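Minutes, methods subgroup
Present: GH (chair), OT, SY

1. OT presented the first of two proteins processed in the latest run. Sequence and structure tokens recorded below as shown on screen.
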Amino acid sequence: MGLPKGSSEREQKVDEAQESKIGTWISVGVVGGVILLTYFVLYGLYMARV
């Protein structure tokens, strides 16, 4: 009975790792979006000035 317990713990760790990767990609997307938004706002202000 020790083997199924070990495999289920391993599967649980894999699930946690997948959730962690999803959270990481969401964070990367949010940071990238903020950077792009800032760039477009600054570019728009610059073009409005010129």
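2. SY then presented the second protein from the same run.
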Amino acid sequence: MSDSIECEAVRRGRTWVVHVPEHDVYGHGRTLKAARENTEEGLALVGVTAPVTITAVTPELEHLRSAEAAYEAALGEAVAALLLRRTTLGDIAQATGVPPSRVKRILARRSAPGEDPSAAEAAPPMPAALTPSG
């Protein structure tokens, strides 16, 4: 089996506990690395030799992930709005505090064909004349 197994780790006291429900395997460790290694060992005992990817889950980390997602959405909207006002890529980068290469990636995602329709509703489509040329 070559696919990575994704699972979540929760903190119990001073230990991270991991459960892989599809294989009914548990792992644990004082560090996330130790918990991953222990989980991989447990999976090997049931004949599964896939790498394990662990996502740490706590209320604070969930709050952080939600704040990061909100920031990314707001950044995308700000970049699109500035571009519609014919702002240069350099000025957009400076105004938003992100590198120009990141501004280009944001613009490429927003103008990519087949993008998520809900994302298209959040920001107006980018006019073809204003798309970055590289």
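Chair's summary of item 2: Residues 59-84 form the longest helix (26 residues).
Next meeting: continue with the remaining queue.
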